[in-house]
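[scheduler] slot 2 assigned
[scheduler] job type: sequence-to-structure, two independent chains
[scheduler] chain ordering preserved from manifest
[runner] begin chain α
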Amino acid sequence: MQHTISAVRRGGNPYSPLPTFSYERYDNMSSLDSTRLREVLVYCPSTGIFRWRVNRKAARAGNVAGTVNGRGYCYISFLGRLCTAHRLAWLYVHGEWPTGQIDHINGCTSDNRIENLRDVSRSTNGQNQRHPQGDNPFLGVSKVNNRWRAQIKFDGENRHLGYFATPEEARDAYINAKRAHHTGCTV
């Protein structure tokens, strides 16, 4: 059965869930080079999709490579190692492994188009966070009694931005501070 990446993105994950692990353990391997990658896979920079160039046990040449986990990241088994597709895309296009983390500029982890990827520090990648943690309605906003507090972290410290009557006002204050203080922000 042939699976397309769009079917996988719609939630039809054809494979069992992948275990949690650190990408550095699998991806920063000097033995995996761009020449061998191009022999085995074909990458389309405009769509961000990898296809197999050769037949494999579980896939035929031309099939979409990889599987998408619950967080939207695509993983591809390459030369016995599980690699994230966004790091493989960087290697495929630039001919070398990224020096830092690969940030999805638009915040969509399944969008591996090369124009949506950038090699950044861990700090910059964290600054491009777009989704709130926990039950908060907006990033940088929390409810305190009957008011909404906005706060942001930069230069290693949490900064209080004020209390607001609505979560939207607190969000606007946070977004303005984020644009001013987070160099990696693309919001």
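[runner] end chain α
[runner] begin chain β
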Amino acid sequence: MAEVPVDKNLERFAKKMSDLDELGNYILKGHLLVEEMVTRIVESFVFHREFIDEARLTFHQKLQLARATSTSDHGNSMWGLISILNSLRNEMSHSLDRPKLQPKLDALRHKYFEEFPKESSSLSDEQVALNAVLACMGFLSAHESEVERFRWWVEKLDRAINQNEDPAVILKEIVGTNGGND
């Protein structure tokens, strides 16, 4: 029986699948976690989430909406770090070659050290990627809390205005919960 030659594509597949590295893991999975947070922020700010799903928004569009929900951090430069992380993830998901990724990695490194100048510049790309993801998640977590407090107040107003609930009952809730800050 003749030996079947190994297909070049299968060889390439086997090699690339064995090359799953920390950097790819941090960027791809980290971006997914960041995107989940951005989506929750956007969805927390609206009353009919199903229309957000139907809009099929890109990550960039969701990010801009999340940024627009901020009362005080809309100008924070951390939004730029999140945007660069997204750009790197996009490049990584469309290219298997590290040299093509290097400019995006360099941009992430530059922005990370701009945000955190006291960090050691000798950090590896993997360490920078991990730290950048964690920093983005920390920033978004604080923003998510801000959006949740705003949503809490809007729900109280809605009950008082549109659902004709007794304002005294709602006021008791507000006082009893420290104005949504618990």
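[runner] end chain β
[qc] chain β: The chain has eight helices and no strands.
[scheduler] slot 2 released
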